[in-house]
Design goal:
It is a single chain. The protein is mainly β and 488 residues long. It has helices at 227-232, 318-324, 436-441, 472-479, and strands at residues 2-4, 15-16, 22-24, 28-31, 56-59, 64-70, 78-82, 87-92, 95-102, 104-107, 112-118, 125-131, 141-148, 170-173, 215-218, 244-252, 256-257, 260-262, 291-293, 296-299, 304-310, 340-344, 349-355, 358-359, 366-368, 373-374, 384-385, 405-406, 408-411, 416-422, 427-433, 444-449. The strands form nine sheets. Strands 5-13-12-7-10-14-15 form a seven-stranded mixed beta sheet, with no helix packed on it. Strand 2 and strand 3 (22-24) form a beta hairpin. Keywords: Copper, Metal-binding, Oxidoreductase. Pfam families: Cu-oxidase, Cu-oxidase_2. InterPro entries: Cu-oxidase_2nd, Cu-oxidase_C, Cu-oxidase_fam, Cu_oxidase_CS, Cu_oxidase_Cu_BS, Cupredoxin. Residues 28-151, 286-452 form the Plastocyanin-like domain.
Length: 488
């Protein structure tokens, strides 16, 4: 859906989320909905070429519609909304959820969502919005049109997005950062006045967000699968300690993942099981800082595998850092202080928990990492739980009843996500950041699930390198259906 462009002749000032983590190392330029859209120079309101078409969805008053949204972009997340309409999330990554109503839903690269819209407001034209998550400038935007059948309006919409306020808060699903300011009447506020109690004005919240935004952030882990979905795909259980394989994986740009910068193999593991010299293994390497190699982690067949995905290295004060530096260049590692959308092949996983760092209540900047993880080095290479009794099911906050089922999940900066699978699909499966430049730079690893003997054999007559030796005459016969591929 999105586009981005960059000229490397000058340094680029990276844009920031509300927590002062970075969004992208190249500027957002434009995006498309079903192949249609405008470019808005300098994140303004006037399109560069207004005669270009916008995607339009025509609805009938009183009817309900299911929208399927895919973020096919390679860098930017989008906050999706429809002016003056509430939207109801019903599915993520193809898996059904108990309905969650919201003002907007954030969709990370690689994620898919389904939502229901009830066409029940005044019949006119309304903007469908997909906006980037900048907090320091006007966000980049992608626009479409919701048109009511029978409306006499034939011009572009003049509608405005909902203004979040104390009286009219915005509920936003899938935030890559912590929650919102405490709601009125919560235990942190005076129940009569709704004002924060004086003695807690200067404390740091771990799940609350700057109050000026009036946003109630709902994380993916707060969502609930439907009863039918959980019945079809139950949470993998731990019958005894021997059934569990628990791994910590750190996704960050000091060492890409867990000390290893992924070096992609030349050929596919699954179709070349002999693996004769076409990849550089990380085994036996003394990775004091980081290594560039093909990082393969073995999963034991039929084990319950619990993965703790975290995103942590040396913490800088991002608020002070940003305002003390006039420009950023690509050599600046702090550009990669950002959440990462992590995608797993071969499985869909249950999201059992998502934890966030501590934020400064007034600025929104990250103050300190999640206190749950104990890091052994500044880059947090081999962490453990700070509370040594935490393990398996014995971790506070796990949803083992009806967690959402996904294949892509955002890992908050200086936070973590706990996911769980059953290792019942033998093969080689890649896990990687869905921001394309991060994957190319090595933020990926391969799971070897089971032994080679457990995997499906390579089909007979499967072609290997050097086997394809068709002549131009043979190729012409093939495209004319005179011969079949199975003949070779």
């Amino acid at each position: 859906m999105p586009g981005a462009g960059y000229s490397n002749t000058t340094c680029y000032r990276s844009t920031l989320q509300e927590d002062f983590t970075h969004i992208g190392v190249v500027p957002f330029t434009s995006g498309l909905i079903n192949g249609k859209g405008h470019r808005y120079p300098d994140h303004g309101d006037e399109p560069e070429n207004p005669v270009l078409p916008l995607e339009t969805f025509t609805v009938k008053y009183g009817s309900s519609y299911r929208f399927r949204v895919i973020n096919a972009g390679m860098i930017y997340a989008f906050r999706v909304s429809v002016d003056e309409h509430q939207i109801k999330l019903i599915s993520v990554d193809g898996n059904d959820l108990k309905v969650e109503a919201a003002e907007s839903i954030i969709v990370q690269p690689g994620e898919r969502i389904d939502f229901i819209l009830h066409a029940d407001v005044v019949m006119r034209n309304y903007w469908i919005r997909a906006e980037t998550l900048e907090g320091n400038i006007n966000p980049g935007k992608v626009l479409g049109v919701l048109h009511y059948q029978g409306s006499t309006e034939n011009h572009i919409p003049t509608s405005k997005r909902k203004k979040c306020s104390l009286k009219h808060r915005c509920r936003v699903i899938n935030c890559p950062f912590g929650g919102s300011e405490p709601a009125e009447g919560s235990d942190l506020t005076n129940s009569k006045t709704g004002i924060l109690n004086a003695h807690i004005l200067n404390i740091k919240f771990s799940r609350y967000y700057p109050k000026k935004k009036y946003m109630d952030c709902i994380s993916i882990a707060d969502l609930k699968s439907t009863n039918f979905e959980i019945k079809q795909h139950p949470v993998p259980r731990i019958e005894n300690g021997m059934d569990l394989q628990e791994l910590f994986l750190n996704f960050h740009f000091a060492c890409e993942i867990w000390l290893n910068k992924m070096k992609l193999p030349f050929l596919c593991f699954q179709t070349f099981p002999e693996q004769d010299g076409f990849f550089e293994s990380c085994e036996g390497k003394n990775c004091i800082d980081n290594c560039c190699c093909t990082n393969i982690i073995k999963l034991k067949k039929n084990k319950t595998v619990q993965l703790v995905l975290y995103n942590q290295d040396i913490l800088v004060n991002l608020f002070r850092y940003h305002f003390s530096r006039p420009r950023f260049c690509f050599s600046d590692n702090t550009l990669f202080d950002m959440p990462h959308p992590i995608h797993m092949h071969g499985h869909q996983f249950h999201v059992l928990k998502m934890a966030f760092p501590d934020y400064n209540r007034f600025t929104g900047a990250i103050e300190s990492p999640s206190p749950d993880i104990d890091c052994d080095t500044p880059y947090c290479n081999y962490p453990t739980w700070k509370n040594k009794s935490w393990h398996g099911d014995n971790i506070p906050g796990l949803n083992l009843v009806n967690p959402p089922l996904k294949d892509t999940v955002i890992v908050p900066r200086y936070g973590y996500v706990i996911i769980r699978i059953k290792a019942d699909n033998p093969g080689y499966w890649i896990m990687h950041c869905h921001i394309e430049i991060h994957q190319v730079e090595g933020m990926a690893l391969v799971f070897q699930e089971g032994e080679k003997s457990d995997m499906a054999p390579v089909p007979d007559k499967f072609h290997k390198c050097g086997d394809f030796n068709w002549t131009s005459n043979t190729f012409r016969k093939f495209i004319n259906n005179d011969i079949n591929f199975s003949d070779f």
